[in-house]
Write a structure and sequence with these properties.
2 copies of one chain form a homodimer. The first copy, chain A, is built from 16 helices and 16 strands. By secondary structure, the first copy, chain A, is an alpha/beta fold. Chain A folds into 2 domains: 261 residues, Queuine tRNA-ribosyltransferase-like (TIM Barrel), CATH 3.20.20.105; 97 residues, no CATH class. The first copy, chain A, is globular, with a radius of gyration of 20 Å.
């Protein structure tokens, strides 16, 4: 392990934590949400826009960048930060989740994951060492270990063996990593508390700079996500950052922060934006709906993003129905502003000791009103 | 006719003219290139970006906006400027060209054009009066008359009848127009000098605030465009703006300015951008090519646009090959900067009396090097 890395807790409010993560590429105020820039681009927006929406850090996908344009190419061009023109912190996933989920043929054994590229069908093997090599070449500030993440529902024995393999792979990742950042471990264990505990304990024995909760939001109901995230968070060390992977809706972020988690990522704000599903202070809306046909008001009167400052709902509806590319961009700017603004509000609430009041108020507000049930 | 409108010639250099067009929405420095915002959006970029690329005026398409979202909706929302968040001048075409070219069934008679929507197959009739009504509702600053524009090659008699109908329709448009801007007439006549002269003479008898050259770039070779544009320009009044419709390549703009034309529009910079064809000081390149795979240099070292300032050729190639939406946007910003920068260079050259030297230098430079032949 190399690289400047430090995590400081600034204040706590209940289990919710306000912290600061210091990397060689700058600071991340936590709790933080990381916009997803799969292929080295947060879809439709520039790094400057991602930043002005409020992001301190972005996530990029190892699997995708390994296949296209290739990690060696990116390394030779000065690393991912320079390549994508984002000089602030980057977290990369291990590539394992996509190798499991995006590819046709996929075989896992103790050695690693054998898969076929979704781009051209070519065969590849992702081992813990290979994943670390790729992430080191990309030059990310936080590199995630390769883990085994079974889809749910799965049997206890299946998850138990994934926990054992995840620990073994985490050890290999820890030893193999030579990049400029730090590796984070990933706790597995599915819905079982004893397996989560075992995974958390085994990984802490390896002493990682940060810990993630994996294997959530992989097919189980929303309640299960909150339960597992909450119980696993309590198993993780106080003084290290805790990252809930791939979650989720605004209310999930609130529950996550309430459980003492510090980092989040999800494609929801960006992907939903491209589909016309927009997060507002009045709840989630689909801008394609006929009711917005001649609506001269801004998307969200409580929002001061570029989209809400300059365009009407009628125009945003026109853009998406006409297939105009500007649609994705304006919608993405708004949704990212919403998500990142929500994180900022939570950070302030924790600082002021008013997090539980904020939480209660949000859950009673129209913003949360339409999130009932498992509507991811 | 209403609205503030004035055209002043500031200086001339040979036939090339440096002028200023004053509208109620602001001034347009001529010779000017108008980026195309078909559906009320220059594809993939914001109005602020269009402006910072150097545009004084944009073009929007009457046919498209009439079908989606509808001109009455736009009127009720305060007009097209407010709708698309572009407060500077807008020119709208008549809708005729698209009704002729984009629709399956299309019948023309003296009354107007009957066509079926390319969106949903619904039947519509576009008359001179209807075209003016739509453009008045949009609130454009320059409204183009409905003209008949036959595809080339066409027989003399066919073009002769189109000229007669175009004059008759121009008269009806002139009488019907009640919008906030001014109407421009369109000279037809195909490749025949006598028909062009007749069309130009008949339209000038109607005394329009500006004149366009239509029926070029509709299937004929590049040499024919330059010839017809040149001879028709000489038939138009000195003190009125002259607009060459739908043209073209950078060299066509240079020939057009050299012929005394003032306004131009073309989808080429924006459409080519989305295909990865980019205009540079070294000539036209396709950024998808393998030679750019690991190229760390900016797209055009002589360009200071956002794209060339922040990104490498390798990254631009990666974006387009990966289907990333940011690709269209970064490429569009560059191509518009190139086109609008070329216009600015020509304006300065005319002011300094060095237009013919500029023209010679450009045509001898690598920038023009790959434009030989009819490679539109």
């Amino acid at each position: 392990m190399s690289g400047k890395f430090d995590f400081r807790l600034l204040s706590c409010d209940g289990r919710a934590r306000r912290g600061e993560l210091c990397t060689g590429r700058g600071r991340v105020q936590t709790p933080a949400f990381m916009p997803v820039g799969t292929l080295g681009s947060v879809k439709s927006v520039t790094p400057e826009e991602v930043r002005s929406c409020g992001a301190d850090i972005v996530l990029a996908n190892t699997y995708h960048l390994y296949l296209r344009p290739g990690h060696e190419l990116i390394r030779d061009l000065g690393g991912l930060h320079r390549f994508m023109h984002w000089e602030r912190p980057i977290l990369t996933d291990s590539g394992g989740f996509q190798a499991f989920s995006m590819t046709g043929l996929c075989r896992v054994d103790d050695h690693g994951v054998r898969f076929q590229s979704h781009v051209d069908g070519s065969s590849h093997v992702l081992t813990p060492e290979k994943s670390m090599e790729i992430q080191a070449a990309l030059g990310s500030d936080i590199a995630m270990v390769l883990d085994e993440c079974p889809e749910l529902p799965a049997e206890y024995e299946r998850i138990e063996s994934a926990v054992a393999r995840t620990t073994a792979w985490a050890r290999r990742c820890r030893e193999a990593y030579t990049g400029p950042g730090v590796p984070f471990a990933i706790v597995q264990g599915g819905p079982w508390e004893d397996l989560r505990a075992r995974s958390a304990r085994e990984l802490q024995e390896l002493d990682f700079p940060g810990y993630a909760i994996g294997g959530v939001s992989v097919g189980e109901p929303a309640e299960a996500i909150a339960r597992v995230a909450g119980l696993t968070a309590a198993m993780l060390p106080e003084d290290k950052p805790r990252y809930l992977m791939g979650v989720g809706r605004p209310v999930d972020l609130i529950f996550g922060v309430d459980s003492g988690l510090d980092l989040f990522d999800c494609v929801m704000p960006t992907r939903n934006a491209r589909n016309g599903t927009l997060f507002t202070s009045m709840g989630k809306i689909n801008i394609k709906r006929n009711e917005f046909r001649d609506d001269p008001s801004p998307l969200d009167p409580d929002c001061s993003c570029e989209t809400c400052s300059n365009y009407t709902r009628a125009y945003l509806r026109h853009l998406i129905l006409s297939g105009e590319m500007l649609s994705a961009r304006l919608n993405t700017i708004h949704n990212l502003t919403y998500y990142l603004g929500l994180m900022e509000t939570m950070r302030h609430a924790i600082e002021e000791g008013s997090f539980s009041a904020f939480r209660r108020e949000y859950l009673d507000s129209p913003a949360a009103g339409r999130y009932g049930g498992d509507d991811r």
